[in-house]
Amino acid sequence: MLANQRREKILELLMEDGSAKVVDLAKIFKVTEVTVRQDLEKMEKDGLLIREHGGAFLKNIKDQVSSFSVANHDHMDRKEIIAKKCLDFIDDGDTIILDSGSTTTEIAKQLKGNRNVTVITNALNIALMLGAEPNIEVIVTGGEFKPPTLSLTGQKAADFFKGINVQKLFLATAGVSLKSGLTYPSISDLVVKKAMIDAAEITYLVADSSKFGKSSFASLGALSLIDTIITDVNIENKHKQHFLENDIEIIIAE
Fold it and tell me: Residue ranges of the HTH arsR-type domain (predicted)?
């Protein structure tokens, strides 16, 4: 992996977890700690992060948490359209899981005042958004807090879903690759997302078209883990065809 590519992946990890240790980054990318320190020094000079002893943390992370703002604001127009379409698949009385993420946050906004449902989530911003809604019951998982995504993660979050059965899961992703499947920047999220999938009768992947053809660091598994993809009109035909060939339903939000 080239240095620029590695630094991009390091930034992805920081944007997901908020901070990282030099020793962990060296193991993840199979390079020396000296190399990682050089990467972090360059990235700090570029204004992307702040170094600390033994690691680094994302710049402006405290401001982001205090404002309760999810980091990824790209393609929000597409995400809003996708979220509106998701309401077609949520019925009164449903118990659903909303994964953490910017698209699932948009789904939560659309649910306000529209449905009588139970929402299970690992996203604290979603819980606060829906917690005061009189017709929505909100259940929050436990787990380790990740500041950039305002989410709870790790084995404790995954253990929450043991023995639980819900109608629908609305799952987020960082990348959808024909080769690597569903991918994410953070390894700690994989166990949570797999537990969510196991708990749901139907899994909807909510992903705007910019996510297709992209690969992040950690792979959850094959696309066969999901039942339906809800995306926007800009999805390329080659991706659409691959999903159809693998019996994955595609819903285009317009």
Answer: 1-80
